[in-house]
Amino acid sequence: MFKTACVVSVVAIAGSAQSQVWPQFEGAMKHVLITFDGTNVGVEIDHLVNPEPTPLPMVNYGDAHTSPADVLDGMYISSQYGFLADGLISLPQDAAIWVEMTGATPGLEIYEGGRRMMRASHTYAPIFGTDGSDAAWQWDGNMHHPWVAAPALGDYEAIFEVYIGDAVTGARLSGYVSDEVTLDWVAIPSPASASLLGLAGAAALRRRR
Asked: What's the distance, CA 44 to chain centroid?
């Protein structure tokens, strides 16, 4: 009886884990490298490790995601871009590095992520002005791949300013120089949709013949 109950419990737990649906991702990581020399903040896209040209693709896989990732349902998504320290960063006392989105294509949404493989631990909380959140977001110095989402096919971009600010309020601290980077994406049909369109086109061509 006890063994049977244990087996049922294990199967139930395994089934629950298998039923969870987290966002899919394709393509290698493309890091947004951040530096700080004591006065100047630097930020640039790393094209050496991953030379994939931009804009990076966003795809709608049609998944119904497990909460809280369900904020991405029905959206074209990407997590390829990720903020990463380029070397050791030593900050002034009570200071932090902040990233503020200063401009973006209408409709673009961004949600908190983390390390790409740890999707179940991401908060998926809105950031960078999404759903009324603050435009500025405090970066903790660790690799962070946010989830970027768009509602329709097309080209999207966002402009980010990286600066030194108060660790609590985010207020800019004087005496430090910020830097800016523009990230871009293109929302494209999913591979499955593209295949179906190709098959439909081939069938139509055969009928015309």
From this structure: 17
pTM score, whole prediction: 0.84
Burial letters 26-41, b for 16+ CB under 10 A, else e: eeebbbbbbbbeeeeb
The gap from C-alpha 107 to its chain's centroid, in whole angstroms, comes to: 15
- Pair of tokens at residue 118: 């740890």
Question: Mind listing the pLDDT tens digit for each residue in 2-55?
Answer: 444 444 444 344 445 568 999 999 899 999 999 999 999 999 999 999 999 999
Distance CA 24, CA 11 (A): 25
Taking phi first (over 0 means left), then psi (-120 to 50 degrees means alpha), and beta for anything else, what does residue 51 get? Answer: alpha
Domain ranges in the chain are 21-204
Strand order of the β-sheet with 81-85 is 41-45, 30-36, 81-85
Distance from C-alpha of 118 to C-alpha of 122, rounded to nearest angstrom: 7
Pair of tokens at residue 126:
């809105």
